[in-house]
């Protein structure tokens, strides 16, 4: 557990449900700089489901990247943010293989924002901005910005790859896993990743 707390700083990848045993929940990968500062070595650990919440929420961790974390872990992140009195929670959610029609529907994107804000109890400030642009086909698509009273929600929808890149930043604690699941379901994605940073 001490090793997990020392090394786990940036990446946590969840094993595919079809390939893992009941007793193994996460693989954590992290880098550690040697004394000279020039060389790095990495370590890989397998962490049990019971250990993961404590590891993720240790005060030394600045960010985590998780795919398909369970509901308890998302709620634990929310509780820890409140207990530690962090300035805010920033979640970056990447959703892949989205339904092409859903990410090309400006009104549907606005409806998503309204429903998401209701779900996580965030108060919208002003109208949702949804603009289509991008000269480079690789990045062309709608972009969305919604101010909320506790900060900002934004997203870009990439037409070429049918991917959604969603960011939620708020000084009011919320459950990042609720956001990930709702967004993936809404846009019909096949899978997604979640990166959570505690802003201090």
Describe what this molecule looks like in 3D.
Residues 1-68 have low confidence and may be disordered. Helix content is 29%, strand content 36%. The chain is of the alpha+beta class and 200 residues long. It is built from 6 helices and 10 strands.
What would the keywords be for this entry?
200 residues, alpha+beta, 3-stranded antiparallel sheet, 6 helices, globular, disordered N terminus
Helicity range: 25-40%
How do the strands line up in the largest sheet?
A: 4-10-5-9-8-7-6
Spatial extent as radius of gyration:
18 Å
Chain-averaged pLDDT? 73
Give the count of helical stretches: 6
The description of the largest β-sheet is: 7 strands, antiparallel
Beta strand %: 35-45%
Name the helix and strand elements from N-terminus to C-terminus, one letter apiece.
HEEEHEHEHHEEEEHE
Oligomer: single chain
Can you tell me the residue ranges where pLDDT is under 50 for at least 5 consecutive residues? 1-68
Apparent shape? globular
N-to-C span: 24 Å
Structural class: alpha+beta
**Number of strand segments:** 10
């Amino acid at each position: 557990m001490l090793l997990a707390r020392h090394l786990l700083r940036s990446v946590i990848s969840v094993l595919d449900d079809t390939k893992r045993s009941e007793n193994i929940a996460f693989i954590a990968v992290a880098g550690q700089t040697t004394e000279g500062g020039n060389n790095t070595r990495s370590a890989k650990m397998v962490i049990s489901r019971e250990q993961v919440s404590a590891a993720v929420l240790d005060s030394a961790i600045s960010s985590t990247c998780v795919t398909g974390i369970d509901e308890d872990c998302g709620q634990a992140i929310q509780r820890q943010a409140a207990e530690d009195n962090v300035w805010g929670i920033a979640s970056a959610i990447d959703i892949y293989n989205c339904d092409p029609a859903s990410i090309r529907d400006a009104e549907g994107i606005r409806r998503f924002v309204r429903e998401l804000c209701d779900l996580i109890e965030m108060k919208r400030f002003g109208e949702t901005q949804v603009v289509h642009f991008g000269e480079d086909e690789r990045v062309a698509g709608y972009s969305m910005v919604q101010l909320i009273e506790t900060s900002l929600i934004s997203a870009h929808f990439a037409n070429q790859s049918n991917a959604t890149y969603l960011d939620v930043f708020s000084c009011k604690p919320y459950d990042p896993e609720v956001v990930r699941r709702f967004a993936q379901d809404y846009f019909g994605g096949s899978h997604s990743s979640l990166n959570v940073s505690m802003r201090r």
